[in-house]
Amino acid sequence: MLTTRPRGTNDILPSEAGKWHYLEELLRLVSxxxxxxxxxxxxxxxxxxxQRGVGETTDIVEKxxxxxxxxxxxxxxxxxxxxxxxxxxxxxxKMYANPQxxxxxxxxxxxxxxxxxxxxxxxxxxxxxxxxxxNDPSVDAEVIAxxxxxxxxxxxxxxxxxxxxxxxxxxxxxxxxxLQKFLEKNKxxxxxxxxxxxxxxxxRILDCKNPGCQELTQGAPTTSETLCKDxxxxxxxxxxxxxxxxxxxxxxxxxVRGLDYYTGTAFEITAQGIGAQSSIGGGGRYNGLISQCxxxxxxxxxxxxxxxxxxxxxxxxxxxxxxxxxxxxxxxALGKEAQTKAFTLAQSLRQKGVIVERDYLGRSLKAxxxxxxxxxxxxxxxxxxxxxxxxxxxxxxxxxxxxxxIPLDDITAYLIEELQKEGVR
Length: 425
Ligand code: HAM
Description:
Homodimer. It is an enzyme of class 6 (ligase). Its EC number is 6.1.1.21. By secondary structure, the protein is α+β, with helices and mostly antiparallel strands. The chain folds into two domains: 248 residues, 2-Layer Sandwich (BirA Bifunctional Protein, domain 2), CATH 3.30.930; 88 residues, Rossmann fold. Helices cover 39% and strands 20% of the residues. The protein contains 15 helices and 16 strands.
């Protein structure tokens, strides 16, 4: 136990941290370019937020939440997703009183008690965006295009955008009725969860992974068949905007997302070749969520991308992110006095913004140079007793082993100039 991490969690090791940094930097850059500001919400919230926000009949709320009671007898839940917390913060801080729309993004860990497998974890990371305050279909197309822009900048190919409209409170009741009628005679054959959904939220049956339920819903009425005029016009406009941007998509009338707050536009982005967990991102419109949480009637739309799944897909497609974390200067020192000098020189170089490593183990010069090579240092400063006596240091260019002796008083300026010449600073 003491040396094993909890099932479904991951350590991001130093060797992988560079990939995460690269991805996060790209996400922050793209967010800025599209006009989004970051929001950081707590990793736990009142359980009720997700019960009411995500929906009682979703897999997430029914069986995947990490819920606990704190010492003050409050029921809290580790966030399984970022939309409900962002809506909560929008309301709590009265952001609706600002000029709209409000465009927010977040990056962080989410928690779901899911069955772990490749690409599916109990703690995973999402990047998500939410736009509050506009029901314009061009916003729907823009957020989809933004997600695709991110994947494209990473070099990913072979992705599919699946698009649907899940209807609104006007047309949803008709779909519900027709679906119940379609399933009525086979109701007893549905899995126990779907039997419960039959009354509470039959649309969720279309999303059941149980093969029996999947067979029973073959040919079932889809949401697209029962859309009201507003929803079908909205969907058409989203499509024409996507076409204008040249973003390919396929209509999937059976697409039902795993969260209850969606109204109208719903989409999922899938990647081939990463196994069963092919959804690398998804989102949609949730025009009723903000008012349902007690706020003013405000439309919303957003998406979230699974960061582990993005990295997994990059790996599958043989794409390597440029992540080298380089060392500028290694200081090799021999002898007590030289070591003291190395210690202070390292500190003063770092304070000037140079990335410096030094020996901590009193190793031989050969071993220290080997360490400098392993770290791919650009320059190595060699300080021995001889040099200290002369108040000099030897600077070695690691690429061609060229060495020059420089007075210690000038060495900082010299190193910085050399690094600039090498184009690394
Ligand atoms: P979601 O489809 O539940 O949507 O999750 C979005 C993405 O998170 C998925 O497409 C997947 O890439 C990743 N993901 C989900 N579960 C796991 C898991 N167990 N392990 C690894 N990755 C996972 C939402 O969460 C909505 N809040 C998206 C949204 C934002 N809709 C509107 N705004």
